[in-house]
Design goal:
about 200 residues, alpha/beta, five-stranded mixed sheet, about 45% helix
Length: about 200
């Protein structure tokens, strides 16, 4: 009886091993088929590749900024809210990316001032780098958070969209380097070139 149960156990172990190998192969195939995804852009709002809307922004400390004009360095705009859990993860990432890529970084929100002040305290954001303005979010048609926009030194909107990870933020920089507004437009151009 013990010999039969051991044989049965080895058959089950062998079958499970084959299933794990088959599953690993399928995961590899799926990984190859998935294309990289960058920041997700909605249909409305300012057009990428065109001049950014000219806007005046006032930070929490009273500092004013002209958005969409010539500047010394590219500007990364990040729209956030204290109630957004992904924003809380992405704020330090954006600070790191901006520092490493030598970008100016401004944060935007449209909530109660006390809520915004708590957010800047939580993440050690300087008050001169946080703008509390609903009109700027409306101009960029921000409908979901976190949302980012990258404006180059000449005031051109290079890329924008919903960002949920470091890769999404970096896709905005890749758009600046390659001239393609999104990963999707790059892949489309590659398909057209291959035909």
């Amino acid at each position: 009886m013990m010999l039969i149960s051991q044989i049965f156990l080895w058959i089950v172990v062998g079958a499970l091993s084959l299933m794990v190998l088959a599953l690993a192969r399928q995961v590899g195939v799926l990984h190859e088929r998935l294309t990289p995804v960058g920041a997700l852009t909605n249909a409305g709002g300012p057009a990428v590749g065109k001049p950014a809307p000219l806007l005046r922004a006032t930070a929490l400390d009273g500092t004013t900024y002209e958005i969409g004009t010539h500047r010394a360095r590219p500007l990364l705009m990040l729209f956030v809210a204290r109630s957004c859990p992904i924003c809380k993860v992405l704020i330090p990432v954006a600070q790191d990316v901006a520092r490493k890529e030598q970008l100016d970084l401004l944060f935007f929100g449209d909530g109660e001032r006390a809520e915004q002040e708590a957010l800047i305290t939580d993440f050690a954001i300087a008050p001169q780098l946080f703008v509390n303005s609903a009109e700027i979010g409306l101009a960029y048609q921000v409908d979901k958070l976190p949302h980012a926009a990258l404006i180059d030194e000449h005031g051109t909107l290079v890329a924008r969209g919903l960002v949920n990870s470091r890769e999404h933020l970096e896709s905005l920089l890749v758009a600046r380097e390659t001239g393609f507004a999104s990963v999707q437009s790059y892949l489309k151009a590659q398909r057209v070139a291959a035909e």
